[in-house]
Amino acid sequence: MIEMFDVWKTYPNGTNALKGVNIKIEKGEFVYVVGPSGAGKSTFIKLMYREEKPTKGQIFLGGFNVSRIKERQIPLVRRSIGVVFQDFKLLPTLTVFENVAFAMEVIEANPKQIKPRVLDVLGLVKLKHKAKMLPSELSGGEQQRVALARALVNNPGIIIADEPTGNLDPETSWEIMKLFEEINQRGTTVVMATHNREIVNTMRKRVVAIEAGTIARDEQRGEYGYED
Fold it and tell me: What sections of the chain are H helices per DSSP?
């Protein structure tokens, strides 16, 4: 599903964010990406959905070589990926329904399929009753559930999440994580960067630890392994 071969990322200021990373993530896995601040986690995540391009090496994602595709092919690759961010990135002037529908409109989905599919995923995240509300009328947890619905609406094979509980209280964080686990159990691959030690240590999924741009640990049923 996801493979990296000798991936390096050097930024214009000379910083080596990643140094020779090799990894394989199988279809249906749930993987936590952990490590100290500045270790390279965000770069690792951004390379997967082609927000960044590797300086060296190759990245394969769902059958695409994302390190070598042309710019015009990037939207095609992103159709197979759902991305969830720490700060939600919802469009403030659109309703909950419209924010989720927008993800389908962007890929020119059949208009007849949009409404039933959007209502289906809003039902999954338990927000169908708030479809007509604006993001500003929702709690932080509800906004993150809208963001998750938007990531899911195009039936991606992979969900990539960058600190999805970073702005949420502990109880809400667990609600969001239960949704991610349910999504994973339905067959979607989940790759999540997080600093939440309690969640990682409790859920016991595969843990990939990045330190100073390299993979320091890669453990099945792993632990967070860092002090706060």
Answer: 41-48, 74-78, 96-106, 111-124, 140-152, 170-185, 197-203
